[in-house]
Amino acid sequence: MERTHxxxxxxxxxxxxxxxxxxxxxxxxSKQRIGELFPESVCSSLDIHxxxxxxxxxxxxxxxxxxxxxxxxxxxxxxxxxxxxxxxxRKIMAVNIKEEENGALTKRWEINDFITKNKYADEDxxxxxxxxxxxxxNDLDGDGLVDPLLVYGTRENFNYTGNGRVKIIIYxxxxxxxxxxxxxxxxxxxETRVDPSFYELPQKMQAAVKQRMTGMEENRHTIFPLYxxxxxxxxxxxxxxxx
Length: 243
What we know:
Layout: H1 3-21, E1 25-28, H2 31-37, H3 40-45, E2 52-60, E3 63-71, E4 75-79, E5 84-88, E6 91-99, E7 105-114, E8 127-130, E9 136-138, E10 147-155, E11 165-172, E12 175-182, E13 191-194, H4 203-218, H5 228-233, E14 238-240
Antiparallel strand pairs: 1-2, 2-3, 3-6, 4-5, 6-7, 8-10, 9-10, 10-11, 11-12, 12-13, 13-14
């Protein structure tokens, strides 16, 4: 093959690769843009009835999407422990929406959850909310499709998240896969349930989830069972302190 043809082939391959890499983007919409895209009439048509707290816009080779995070915002109170007002939510809802070629918005999936009885206290959970710092919309397995990763949790009054729950959800090829964790301030109270299909995910995706779990512990948002990393290496679906 002539040298000029080789150079042309290399340039073509590089251009194709660059173009493929650019098919995946994500960003957080401004409040102004949220108001433009999701006025009350549009929210009503999509059955979105809670206040919107964040909208992530992402694109991949399958199209353009919006993930709308909403929380019920039932009341505010003065939280003396944190020195300011806090908002309490009894319910949350996430809605994933595709923007069709004609501009129409169609719902693809949704997540709903709510506060419940605290497993290790005599009171109900106080609030539930999305942990937006752990949420991500990236192509984790390199197939040109975004793999939405959402995290939310609960708190109670005295130990904040110490006795709360954490839920990690990842969507892969249209399938919802979850890790559900019950936190506890004492050894033996903490337990984590892992969907068996989690261990069927590509290693990069599993690593991204475990990285967030490590971050939650480092940030003191939760404590997973002792030796949880080792338990997950053995593909355990129930993680406990008595491993």
